[in-house]
């Protein structure tokens, strides 16, 4: 079951699953659905659209940095992070400024998450089928049937310990393609406090919008 940012509920099930079974499953999850819809509604109300102007804060590895935006046609366009500031050289065009920020985050996410994957693969004795960085707004990570991993670029805005939780979560899916007790046991073996990180991500994900 997945609840999207527009509060649409989607249930994924094997093709042989009957409509009655799906309805019973949804009914069993009624309390969870209600709580999740309420939390996401509150987060949507708190989510502020970025305008990419001076003074706005942007997150990287759990820290917020103010933006200094300017345009110098003689310098390379794009985003840099230095001296506790984000610097953006780009014309005053919101879509263009967002493009450069997304590109910067995707590059940093690939670099940082790849290193954390390498570390936890050695811890768990696993290999994966590759990694890609997506623009997903709600899904922080995923693991395909072929063990190919995907992570949202927005994940690199979160604190390192939260990123580690999502990385370990997806690696555990290589061994358990479900969210059974065995799956969570695998996660807990590596990260005993994973519940703290999961809760932090749920409570603060509204911060990581562009």
Structural commentary:
The protein folds into two domains: 1-46, no CATH class; 47-207, Metalloproteases ("zincins"), catalytic domain (Zincin-like, 2-Layer Sandwich), CATH 3.30.2010. Helix content is 45%, strand content 18%. It contains six helices and nine strands; from the N terminus they run E-E-H-H-E-E-E-E-H-E-E-E-H-H-H. The strands form three sheets. A four-stranded mixed beta sheet has the order 3-4-6-5. Strands 7-9-8 form a three-stranded mixed beta sheet, covered by helices on one side. The longest helix has 31 residues, at 94-124. The chain is globular and about 60 Å long. The relative contact order is 0.11. The mean pLDDT is 90.
Task: Outline the secondary-structure elements.
Elements: E1 2-3, E2 9-10, H1 19-28, H2 30-46, E3 57-60, E4 63-70, E5 78-82, E6 85-89, H3 94-124, E7 131-134, E8 141-143, E9 149-152, H4 160-175, H5 181-190, H6 194-204
Parallel strand pairs: 4-6, 7-9
Antiparallel strand pairs: 1-2, 3-4, 5-6, 8-9
Task: Provide key terms for this protein.
210 residues; alpha/beta; four-stranded mixed beta sheet; Zincin-like; 6 helices; 2 domains
């Amino acid at each position: 079951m997945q609840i999207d940012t527009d509060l649409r509920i989607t249930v994924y099930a094997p093709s042989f699953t009957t409509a009655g079974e799906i309805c019973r499953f949804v009914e069993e999850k009624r309390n969870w659905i209600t709580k999740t819809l309420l939390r996401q509604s509150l987060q949507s109300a708190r989510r502020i659209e970025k305008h990419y102007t001076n003074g706005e804060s942007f997150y990287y590895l759990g820290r917020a940095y103010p933006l200094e935006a300017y345009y110098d046609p003689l310098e390379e366009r794009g985003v840099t992070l230095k001296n506790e500031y984000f610097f953006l050289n780009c014309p005053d065009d919101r879509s263009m400024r967002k493009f450069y920020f997304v590109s910067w985050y995707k590059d940093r996410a690939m670099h940082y998450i790849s290193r954390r994957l390498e570390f936890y693969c050695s811890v768990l004795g696993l290999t994966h089928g590759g990694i890609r960085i997506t623009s997903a707004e709600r899904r922080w990570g995923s693991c395909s049937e072929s063990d190919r991993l995907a992570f949202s670029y927005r994940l690199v805005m979160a604190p390192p310990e939260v990123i580690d939780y999502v990385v370990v979560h997806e690696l555990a899916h290589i061994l358990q393609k479900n969210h059974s007790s065995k799956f969570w046991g695998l996660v807990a073996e590596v990260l005993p406090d994973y519940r703290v990180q999961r809760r932090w991500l749920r409570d603060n994900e509204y911060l990581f919008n562009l």
